[in-house]
Amino acid sequence: MTKSRRTASVSPAARITAAIIEKLEQGTKPWVKPWRGLPLSRPLRSCGTPYRGMNTFWLWMVADACGYASPYWMTYRQCQKLGGQVRKGEKSTIAIFYKNYTKEVENAEGGQDTESRRVLKTYSVFNADQCDGLPEFYHPKPLVAALEPEGREERLDAFFAEIDAELRHHGAQAYYEPLRDRVTMPPAELFEAYDHYYATLAHELSHWTGHSSRLDRGLKNRFGSDAYAVEELIAELSSAILGAELGLPVSHLDHHASYIASWLKILKQDERAILTAAAKAEEAATLLLEMGGHQSSANEADAELSDAA
Prior knowledge:
globular
């Protein structure tokens, strides 16, 4: 997920509000996590004190967007004092606070009155998941780590293992990073059932096929753009094809319904857009099926037609 750079003239309140509006317009409540099993906690300072007010919802939203599982946030210096180090390349986010001060102002009689004012200020913080060397205390384990969901299948494990994608299990968010060419998935234990895990992985791997070294769909477009919505549509259709071939559900991917408004806009603008998206989805699904060693029913049908000819 990419983040646009903000100019210094944009106030902290405007920045936070704009980010929340963007999420809500996508149909997502940014403070609600889609996965089960993570410890429920307000965002915490390094000392364990909970953040309050808007910081609670803002840091929840950032943690969800970035896949952070730890509730702990700290400044760069606080991390160092705890024996840790922020990893190179990690980006900070803001926390907000009000600074009170007094100012002398002239009153109607020409004298001086003291006026109290509050100014919204920010400081930079990092999540504990962005830091190395911190005590294990700052990385709480999922509540259901020992409970494997039902429905694990050797044939599907073998299929996905054959696909040579960089895959990590981390945090509470499923996403593909084009620049790193890496798929991130929540641990399987956080899913209600393994078929949901497999279906979500199929969706993210569909994005993975669009990398410049594979099908080259151009994945550097800004989050929220029309091109991004088209890519989501391609991944949605591709995962539906994979679901049909592999016997996976697709109806549970409710969070992707947030893109429907964008899809409708695109389809109304270009009546051939769905045809193009479907063709690219077929390419993506075919590539994954071939990599996984699965004989597609479409290929079998093509072979029958070839024999008949």
